[in-house]
From TrEMBL:
Gene3D superfamilies: Nitrogenase molybdenum iron protein domain (3.40.50.1980). This is Iron-siderophore ABC transporter substrate-binding protein. Its main location: other. It comes from Microbacterium bovistercoris. One of its GO terms (biological process) is iron coordination entity transport. It holds the Pfam family Peripla_BP_2. Residues 1-19 form the signal peptide. GO terms for cellular component: outer membrane-bounded periplasmic space. Residues 70-340 form the Fe/B12 periplasmic-binding domain. It is found in: Cell envelope. Belongs to the bacterial solute-binding protein 8 family.
C-alpha cells in the first residue's frame, strides 16, 4: 500500500511497525554498490573515502569507518534519493510499489525486495549484508530504530516529513543520505539543479499569465462506493512547490502537522471557489478511480473548475512525497497544466 492511502485513515498518527522476523531463504548479494541505472551523469561521480560522523534527523550520532556502500533502504523517498546520488541499494522495501508510484529514478534489476514498508523482513534485510540501513521515522524512540539496531548495523533515521518547511525537509533528508554515502558533491550539484529548475519554472508560469492562479491538488480513494478525497494543503510538499511557482493553494481546511494533508468528500470540494483542480494521475492498483467515482456525484459538476474544464491529472508515477527529482517532476507537471 502506498503512503498516501496508508496515511489517510490515521492523519496525524503516523507510525511504522515491524513484523517478527521468522526465517527466510535469501540469495547472497552478487554486487556491492553500482551507479544508478548506469546513467551518464553517474559515471564520474566523486565519492569521499573519509570516515563518516553525522547527526541524523533525531539527534542520533551515526559513525561509519568509511562512506556506506551497501545500503538497505526502507522508504520510497530515500530509495529515490539514494539512486539520485548514484547509489544502488542492495535491498529495498516494496520494490514493485516504488516502481509504480515513483518514476523519478528507475530501480535497477537485482535489488533485493525485503517486504512491505510497514512490515519489512529483518532476516531478508540483513542477509544482504548492508553496512547501513536507512529508515523513515517520526520520533527518536520509533520501534523500527531499536529493532534494527539489535543487529549491530548502523541505522540512519530520517524524518518522514515536516509541514513547517517541506522543501527544506526534503532537501535535508537528501543531504543526510549524501553525507552517509560520501556523495556530498553530487548532492550539491543536484540541489543546485533543483533550485534552477524551480526558478526557471517560476519564470515560465509568470510569463504564461494564467487567468486563475488558485489551485487545489488532491488524491483520493474509493471504499465501499464512498469517495474520499485528500487535499494537499499548507505544509504539503506539492502544495508548497505550487506556491513557490507563484500560485495560491486554496485549500484552507485542517491538515496534519507532518504532511500537510487534509480530508474531505466531493461536497467539500465545492468550497474552494474558482481554484483549478490538480490531482494524481497514478493508477492505484488497489482502488478504482476516485475521479471517475467523484464524477458520479452531482456535486462534482457544480465545481467551477469542473464546469470550465480546469481539472488536470498530473502524469502517473510522480511521487508526491519524494526527493529532488520527484520535485522536479511536480514542477514540470504544474507548468504543463498551466500552459495547456
Amino acid at each position: 500500500m502506498n503512503k498516501p492511502l496508508a496515511a489517510l485513515a490515521v492523519l496525524g498518527a503516523l507510525t511504522l511497525a515491524l513484523a517478527g522476523c521468522g526465517t527466510t531463504s535469501v540469495e547472497e548479494p552478487t554486487s556491492s554498490n553500482a551507479p544508478a541505472a548506469a546513467s551518464d551523469e553517474c559515471k564520474d561521480v566523486k565519492t569521499s573515502s573519509d570516515p563518516v560522523t553525522l547527526t541524523d534527523a533525531f539527534g542520533r550520532t551515526v559513525e561509519l569507518d568509511k562512506p556506506a556502500e551497501r545500503v538497505a533502504v526502507l522508504e520510497w523517498q530515500q530509495i529515490e534519493d539514494a539512486l539520485t546520488l548514484c547509489v544502488t541499494p542492495v535491498a529495498v522495501a516494496d520494490a514493485k510499489g516504488y516502481s509504480t508510484w515513483d518514476t523519478a529514478e528507475e530501480l535497477p534489476e537485482g535489488v533485493k525486495d525485503v517486504g512491505t514498508r510497514q512490515e519489512p523482513n529483518l532476516d531478508a534485510i540483513f542477509a544482504t549484508k548492508p553496512d547501513l540501513v536507512i529508515v523513515e521515522a517520526y520520533t527518536r524512540d520509533d520501534a523500527i530504530i531499536a529493532q534494527l539496531e539489535k543487529y549491530g548495523v548502523p541505522v540512519l533515521a530520517t524524518l518522514g516529513a515536516d509541514a513547517k518547511d517541506p522543501i527544506a525537509q526534503m532537501l535535508s533528508t537528501f543531504d543526510l543520505i549524501a553525507q552517509a554515502t560520501g556523495r556530498g558533491e553530487r548532492a550539491d550539484e543536484v540541489t543546485a539543479e533543483f533550485e534552477k529548475h524551480l526558478a526557471d519554472a517560476k519564470a515560465e508560469v509568470k510569463d504564461a499569465e494564467p487567468a486563475v492562479t488558485d489551485f487545489v491538488f488532491f488524491d483520493g480513494w474509493v471504499d465501499g462506493g464512498n469517495v474520499s478525497l485528500r487535499p494537499f494543503g499548507q505544509g504539503s510538499l506539492i502544495g508548497e512547490l505550487g506556491e513557490e511557482l507563484g500560485l495560491t493553494n486554496a485549500w484552507t481546511g485542517e491538515v496534519d502537522p507532518a504532511y500537510g494533508l487534509g480530508q474531505t468528500d466531493v461536497e467539500g470540494m465545492t468550497t474552494i471557489g474558482d481554484a483549478s483542480l490538480f490531482y494524481t494521475g497514478t493508477t492505484d492498483p488497489d482502488s478504482e478511480s476516485f475521479v471517475d467515482a467523484a464524477k458520479q456525484n452531482p456535486a462534482w459538476a457544480s465545481i467551477p473548475a469542473v464546469k470550465e474544464d480546469r481539472t488536470f491529472a498530473f502524469p502517473g508515477g510522480i511521487w508526491t512525497f519524494g526527493g529532488p527529482r520527484s520535485a522536479e517532476q511536480i514542477i514540470d507537471a504544474y507548468v504543463d497544466a498551466i500552459k495547456g
